[in-house]
Amino acid sequence: MPIRVVDSVGLRGIMRRCKRREEINGRNIMRPLQKMLTVVYLLTVLVSYSASQADVADVVKRSSDAVVLIVISNSAGQETALGSGFLVSADGEIVTNYHVIKEAHSAVVKLSNGAFFPVSGVLATDADKDLAIIKVNGKNLPFLSLGDIEKLHVGDHVVAIGSPLGLEGTVSDGIVSAVRDVAKMKWIQTTAPVSHGNSGGPLLDMNNHVVGVITWGVNLELGQNLNFASPCSEVQALLVTAHQQAKPLDSVASKGDGLTDGTVWTSLTSGRDYSIRQDGDYFYVDWVNIPPDVKTAGGFQRSELKKSSDGKWRGKTHLRLPCTYTKGLGAYARNFTNWCSRETDLEIDLMSDKRIEGIATGSVKFDCRKCEAEGKVEQQSFTWIPK
Predict the structure, then answer these.
(1) What is the DSSP letter of 94?
(2) Which three-class secondary structure string do you get for 308-347?
(3) What is the pTM of this model?
(4) Annotation: CATH topology of 264-386
(5) Catalytic residue among 130, 173, 273, 286
């Protein structure tokens, strides 16, 4: 076969066609590769996000039962403040901020399961570091473990749980922005959003350990996500100095002898706090640590009694409280709440400056749909002691 002779122009044309084929083939190879890399990247981001969300959910699941709402009342039994706290022992030691309880005449804590416990006193306080350890009388309570501040690093993922504005069990998360020295004290700066009512709540790491106590934040008009927590090391130091015997809340005044108007008494049966007032032969009782959401909606429980010739006090308890019932079965079941008003009988048989004992009478069952008592009447003894 004769050899084809190609001039320089023809050779350049052949080279251009070969190069074009290589570019086309390269694009055909690279396009699927680019798409595959993009998909892998997106999957990596999604998996990472899902894992992060799962970690937060797991921390909340394991720790939220030990976080409490603290309701503060003054000497008249009126609620004056709300705060957060968390249990650090099974017998009722609770960490919170000093500023939460410093003006308290009495206080009650509410657990996530709805149980109420009156605060029996204060074990330790540090006003400079804004920390306090209070005590409730309980057994086998859920509690949190303290972490190691030395193992906390800037950029670590953290979770805050508390009751901002009384909204119990509110969860937020963020990172550790910095560990700073402010006013000669160490503070953990975090991006986890907090509000009024979060004070005293725990800041947790992803191992479910408390690394800090939410204490203060910068006004939103001045800066976003600038919130600070007292480090867990300060809590550990305060626990070492805690008293074995709880002392009364700092602002509790001496009650003296006799029944003083406006003093608060705690029921050993229900854990409720009552403000009492005596006017001659009449005796008035108000439930003062009623849940904030119930009180805001107009709920109340008040009793009025009159002294009888036999020395006992007899009267009625008037109350308006929510009553929940269920309609439907299985997947079609729905809960409904009625606000029911009713009266029950109340009798006080023993009254002294140390103890009040009596009997409350009411129906065993109550129809929440009709707001009507039904079934047999039952008597239940009660005992109140001064706070």
Answers:
(1) E
(2) CCCCCEEEEEEEEEEEEEEECCHHHCEEEEEEEEEEEEEE
(3) 0.53
(4) Lipocalin (2.40.128)
(5) 130
199 annotated active-site = yes
Q: Tokens 């239940």 label which residue?
A: 380
Choose the weakest-confidence range: 38-47, 174-183, 284-293, 340-349. 38-47
Spelled out in words, what is the top-level CATH class assigned to the domain 62-253?
mainly beta
The C-alpha atoms of residue 358 and residue 308 are separated, in whole angstroms, by 14
> Could you read off the pLDDT of 115-141 as tens digits, one per residue?
999 999 999 888 888 899 999 999 999
Catalytic residue among 163, 199, 230, 303: 199
Domain parsing of the chain, residue ranges: 62-253, 264-386
Our separate counts of H helices and E strands in the chain read 4, 21
Closest Cα to residue 276, out of 349, 385, 359? 385
pLDDT of residue 253: 35
Instruction: Select which of 65, 89, 99, 157 is catalytic.
Output: 99
Helices (H), the chain: 8-63, 98-101, 232-241, 292-296
The yes-or-no answer on residue 99 being catalytic is yes
